[in-house]
Specification:
- Residues 1-138 form the Globin domain.
- It comes from Paenibacillus albiflavus.
- Its EC number is 1.14.12.17.
- This protein is an alpha/beta fold.
- It folds into three domains: 4-146, Globins (Globin-like); 155-253, Elongation Factor Tu (Ef-tu), domain 3; 270-396, Nucleotide-binding domain of ferredoxin-NADP reductase (FNR) module (Rossmann fold), CATH 3.40.50.80.
- Helices cover 42% and strands 17% of the residues.
- The chain is built from 13 helices and twelve strands.
- It has helices at 4-12, 14-35, 45-50, 52-66, 75-88, 94-110, 116-146, 236-244, 279-292, 313-322, 337-341, 353-359, 373-385, and strands at residues 155-164, 169-176, 190-195, 204-209, 219-224, 250-253, 270-275, 298-304, 326-332, 347-348, 366-370, 393-396.
- The strands form two sheets. It has a six-stranded antiparallel β-sheet with strand order 4-3-6-1-2-5, covered by helices on one side. It has a six-stranded parallel β-sheet with strand order 10-9-8-7-11-12, with helices on both faces.
- Strand 11, helix 13 and strand 12 (393-396) form a beta-alpha-beta unit.
- It is globular.
Amino acid sequence: MLNENTIAIIKSTVPVLEKYGTDITKRFYQLLFTNHPELLNVFNQTNQQKGRQQTALANAVYAAAVHIDNLAAILPVVKQIGHKHRSLGIQPEAYPIVGENLLAAIKDVLGDAATDEILQAWGEAYGVIADAFIGVEAEMYKETEDQAGGWSGFRAFRIDRKVQESDVITSFYLVPQDGKAIASFLPGQYVTVQMKIPGEEYTHMRQYSLSDSPDKPYYRISVKREDSRAKEPAGKVSVYLHESLNEGDELLLSAPAGDFILDQAGTRPVVFIGGGVGFTPLMSMMQTVLANQPERKITFIQAAQNEQVHAMKAHVQELAEKNDQLSVHICYEKPLSQDRTVNHYDHEGFIDAKYLKSVLPSEEADIYLCGPVPFMKAVYAALQANQVPTQRIHYEFFGPAGSIGA
């Protein structure tokens, strides 16, 4: 436990972290990768280039400082990050390395303002916080390995089927190479793919949501080819998956992880709102409700640019035809000419408060939201405009955590 003096010192640094937090974490990653380049095998360099990882870490450090006298308040964040770490194979020996470089970054950025007293206090605080992470992750490793069909580390899977779902999204049906059972998962969870791409110096790790229900003898991931946005780095892994891997090829997976999961005990109507490839965890949730809760009303709202990039449209419509409990609504931001004349859709343009009001259930519902950050921010604001309680809105970021509320 931390003494009162250490807590007071950490609390006194909160305004500094609010102002310089991202500068500190940027410097931290520079030091970390210079001193330990082997960690480039673990970290997503695209998120580094976009600054998302630095911002996420800055927010986590800030939250730890604010709640240093009540770390139980950040336990949900610890568990969320713990899922990521477990899926990536982060081990306890990594924490001293992180602590050493984080303190060095604080000193580099703050200069003389980072007194020995402040650095010592943060060293003690980091030790307590690291112990919390290590403890949570140790339980996760044990649970993952001990469950039926579970395993530790990365396991070889074979691409059994490769199905093009749209111009930019392809599904990969994965079965274990050893032919043994696979671990079940909670609807909404993801797997981490570990990949060595020819010509690349470092291993790549990417996390993909499981897009089918848990009761299958395979895992399905539905991957968007991220190579169309000129202002952002191309998705090396997604492009390689789409263009270079075929049925019969091998992929290495860690066991399913993640805390963005369906409340399967809930009985309220449920609304799934997916933008682009953000529909993937929602598909798993929706199909689970259909299989297990035939009386639970489902509203499934899927947004896409147009018909060409709209994945699994026919499959979802077929499910709606077979299940009266399911209501499907399709939104195209920029429909093509043939969309207007031939292909069915329900709404043109962005999802706004007025449109949501017309399709949301009249009774209180649980909302699950996933998609690009701008999409989620806009939908979240539209939900709030419709007086949807914050505690009923559940969402997930693809990549480092952020914020979509005001």
